[in-house]
Give the backbone structure.
Amino acid sequence: MEPRQQGSLDKEPLKEVDEDMVSEVDLNNTVTEEEREEMENELTKLEEEITTLKQVLASKEKRHLELKQKLGITPLCELRQNFSKSWYDMQTSTAYKKTSETLSTAGQRTSAAFSNLGNAISRKFGDIRNSPSFKSFEEKVESTVSNIKSKVGGTGGAGSFEEVLSSAAQASSQDTPTNNMTENNEC
C-alpha cells in the first residue's frame, strides 16, 4: 500500500477495494440477537463475580480486624508505627540528610560569626576604656562624685557610688518642702 500524506485529502477516485470496505462498515452499529445475548450473559457473569469478590473481601477484612484485636494492635498503635516508619524514611532520605548538613554548617558558621563579633566588641570596649578620652571622663566622674560627697557631708572619698546617690537624694528631699494634702472624699 502507498503511504498517504496526513492532513490532505486523497485526490484519487475511490477504487473497488475502498468501496468494498465502505459497504462492510456497519453505520448503525447494530448487534445481532445472538451477539447481544452473549454479551448479556458475560455481563451477568461479571456482575456475579464482582459480587462474590466483594463478599470475599468483606470476609477477609473482618478476619483481618479480628486478628488485629486479638494481637492487641489498636488504631493508635498502627498510627504510631506508621508515624515512626515515615519519620525513619524521612530521616534516611537524601534530601533530609543534605538539609540537616546544610543547617548544621550554617549553625556552626553563625556561632563562629557571633563569637567573632563578641570578641571584637569586647576588644573595642577594652580599647575605649584604655583610651585617653575615657580615662579623662572617668577622672571627671570620680571628681564629681567626690565633690558631691563633700557637699553632702560625707567622708570625702569613702563609700560607693550608690551610697553617694542615696545620701544626695536624702539631702535634696530635706531641702524640698513637702506638700501634704488632706484627703477629701467630697467633690
Remarks:
- The radius of gyration is 49 Å.
- Confidence is low (pLDDT under 50) at residues 179-187.
- The CA atoms of residues 152 and 172 lie 9 Å apart.
- The helical segments are 16-24, 33-71, 75-91, 94-129, 132-152, 161-175.
